[in-house]
Amino acid sequence: MPTVSIDKFLALCEQGFPVVDARSEGEFEEGHIKGAINLPLLNNEHRALVGTAYKVSGRELAIQKGFELAGPEFARIFKEGRKLAKHKKILVYCWRGGLRSKILSWVLSFTDAEIYVLEKGYKNYRNRISEVTDTPYKFLVLGGKTGTGKTEVLHLLKAAGEQILDIEAIANHKGSSFGALGMLPQSNQEHFENSIGEELLKLDFKKRIWIENESRLIGHLVLPLSIFKAIKESELVELDIPLETRIARLENEYACFETNLLEAAIVRLQKRLGGLRYKMALEALAEKAHKKWIQLVLEYYDSTYTYGLSKRIGKSIQLTWNWENTKDSLQQLMNHD
Fold first, then answer.
1. Is the CB of residue 224 less than 8 Å from the CB of residue 174?
2. What's the rounded mean pLDDT across residues 37-60?
3. Of 32-46, 234-248, 257-271, 308-322, which gets the smallest average pLDDT?
4. Tens digit of pLDDT for each residue in 68-127?
5. CATH homologous superfamily of domain 3-131?
6. Whether the domain at 3-131 and the domain at 136-334 fall into the same CATH topology
7. Global pTM?
8. Using an 8 Å Cβ cutoff, are 23 and 100 in contact?
9. Residues in a beta bridge with 117
10. How far apart are CA 286 and CA 49, in angstroms?
């Protein structure tokens, strides 16, 4: 069974071949290669027992204990492997590319699929992710106040052939107090970093990459420092649209959610809104006066956005965006050099 480099392994992943993680479910939950299936050779409890055996009795008896615990799992692993074998190739990794991936790949080899093992395992993958997320980048940053529709514009750019890095899609959060509404639950920090790194590896760094202007904290996740610095230091194209249009767009996006969810988001902003504005926003929400509470909340977000712009290092230009004529607006944006 061939052992392959991290770049070869990720290239095979991109071709759609199944990826099997041999680590325990606890290790897998902490972070894994995107799309991987967890087929633990040793579960959390078994792994702890083997670790104890190693400390007390040494390597040889720990291996023996591992075989005793893993042996009964071979039938289950083989059964799952048969389902994956239809793809003709199966990719396998463990923590360091050692015993667990060797044993798992041996069991899976009986399915007659070609088995590829990741050299130096998940640790090697994490090093590659750190390498790519720590690289200094020059982005073209898409800016604009809340309600401008930056994410929508980002995807218009992608549809037109431009490269994008959609951090909010990766984070499953739109960045504001309302950002979790309508989104899937967020992952943990390690898996967030993995997902960013894998997206970056797909891009051509000789061509421009568009990214939204983001805060470092997105929900409970933290942008890698190098990515955040690149956003602050790269050129920003600020989309400018009228306040009334922004309010209408936000009403269309959020008024559909249950009142208790919107109220909880406003409550999280209580200190930032101030006593009177907070009270007025809750009253407007109770009356379903959506435009009113949105405008009150935007007063806070607009001032925060303006303050954030003052802290930027990269140069900024302003571009008027017209949602009534997206074709011309998009062309104008893409003509920016």
1. no
2. 70
3. 32-46
4. 666 678 878 888 999 999 999 999 999 998 888 988 998 999 999 999 999 999 999 999
5. Rhodanese-like domain (3.40.250.10)
6. no
7. 0.89
8. yes
9. 3, 92
10. 56
CATH of domain 136-334: 3.40.50
* Residues known to be catalytic: 94
- Strand spans (E) along the chain: 3-4, 19-21, 37-38, 89-93, 114-118, 140-143, 163-165, 209-212, 217-218, 221-222, 235-240, 316-320
Classify residue 21 as exposed, middle or buried by CB count within 10 Å of its CB (0-12, 13-18, 19+).
buried
What are the structure tokens assigned to 56, written together?
Answer: 């007390």
What's the rounded Cα separation, in Å, for the pair 105 and 219? Answer: 38
Domain ranges of the chain: 3-131, 136-334
Q: What is the DSSP letter of 181?
A: T
Of the candidates 166, 268, 168, 262, the one whose C-alpha atom is nearest the C-alpha of residue 221 is 168
